[in-house]
Amino acid sequence: MNKKFAEKFTAVFSAVCMLSVGIVSANAAQIDDGFESVTENTKSSDSSLPSAYSAIGYSLVDENGLPGDYSSKALGFVTPIKAQQYNDCWALAGTEGFETKLLKLGYPVTEISHDHANASSTTQSNGKGWQRGYRDGGFTNIYPGYLTSWQGGAEIADVGEIDFSKFKYSDELTGDKTKYGTTKLRYLDGADSDEIKQAIIDNGAVTASYATSNKCFNTAGTTYFMPQSYDGDYIGHTISIVGWNDTFSKYRFSNSTGVLPQNNGAWLVRNSWGDNNSMGGYFWLSYEDKYIFGEKYSPNFTIDEVTPISDDMTLLQDERYGATYSFNYVDSNDITFINCFDFDENSRTLDKVLFETRSNGADYEIYYIPVSDGTPANDESKWRLVSSGKVAYSGYQSVDTNGYVVPLGRGAIGVKIKTNSDEVSQLGVGEWLTSTTKMTFLNDSNYGDSYIKYDGTTSELLDWYKTERNDMLGGTFVIKAVALKNDKIMVGDVDLDGDITVMDATLVQKYIVNLSELDNTQIYNADCDGDGDIMIADATEIQKIVVGIN
After folding, report:
1. Which residue from 13, 76, 293, 361 puts its CA 20 to 30 A from 157's CA?
2. Is the pTM of this model over 0.85?
3. Which residues, including other chains, have CB under 8 Å from residue 220's CB and lie 6 or more apart?
4. CA 437 from chain center: how many Å?
5. What is the pLDDT of residues 141-162, one digit of tens each?
6. 39: closest CA among 227, 273, 207?
7. What span, in angstroms and rounded, lies between the C-alpha atoms of 97 and 92?
């Protein structure tokens, strides 16, 4: 994004509103009628599912080494087709993509609960969060936030069936049954077809949205094409794309619009309307469809990395809904975005830092920042660099922090984003949203959770919003820390044997003169005076402990 800032209202409505017929928001009845009329009477003999990239033969490999046709379904990387009960296509499609990723990784999967995603993304008991009920439609950025907050997905076998007749608020549900945490999630908005195809091969599926209308299906409900010239009614709908065929004939997209694609080729779509046609609930979507992979229903996404959640692992986060907006308000290409956390005995070692950004190609630096009197240190000489690199894509990033051991208590993680001179630094933020008629998301931000630093000054984020934007609601940065329990932390125990002896002092002396190497836990234990440097004074302190002087 260049240094022109679009009005927030316009950006939100065009990017995330999933309940539109033309440009008018649809109510639940309209959505239900639309789904029913599209899916009825669609049985036919037009079965067109491909074999898995020509039975592993890679038919028509293109110049980039990609097959001309591919199917995750044929390879067995899909669960049984689902049938939505409510306006929660976004939850079903996201869940299907998550299940497929787990199957690609070889993890045992029964069935992930899309009802849990739906219920977790409704209004909280305090009135905050997504301003929707479980029967209402959703938004395309809900599911990425749900996954990367480790609220889900959880298997039905673990969380049980949700009784919506008794369900009230989203904070009734927790993520404590989640077995697999999503750590990398990549947006594919405006991506070329080869990037999308590679994502399907690597991850099994891409979650995307298009505009659905009866008029654009063929009579069998097995092909779909909305031409660029279409100006009739439609409804936003989210699906899971699990394959493609470059030679799928354009003539098979005949429908009541009377317009055909100019070229062959189609995406294989896994839908959420049950086994409603001869393809068992799948259909073909033309590459040239008007809205697929466009800006209107972004973000489209693929799940790049999932990690099993162990008992010694904690996800520290100040928000649970992920990025509802991109913080791009400051005319600067060098900004540090900061979140504060309480590090306890179960979260002393940083394993990864997660953050959401659309600053693709920017340089990043990850810091541990000490906190004094509740405020992160403004003096960068006190910061500790724990990782650095380049943002490789737009979406949720996961950066290894090499086991950096943090002090016990309140501390902060800073993500410095440095772009080129023509672009502003930006980071995902949990911030209020509105549609044309109502509030759609209300953030649950707390004073002292997030800070921002640029031009040499660190500001508390809620104060910044009030001062700079006259905004009383503010937001929370999407920065999370995957932290591990570390039973080896004991100041002075440098060899990690559980005792403090003269051998520990000797090991420090060898480290100082480059005769030995220490890992992050050993470095923390060796820094007896806590000044961040390993010096002879630290070896002396260990010797004093050994002889009982301290």
Report:
1. 76
2. yes
3. 42, 43, 44, 46, 277, 278
4. 27
5. 999 999 999 998 899 999 999 9
6. 273
7. 9
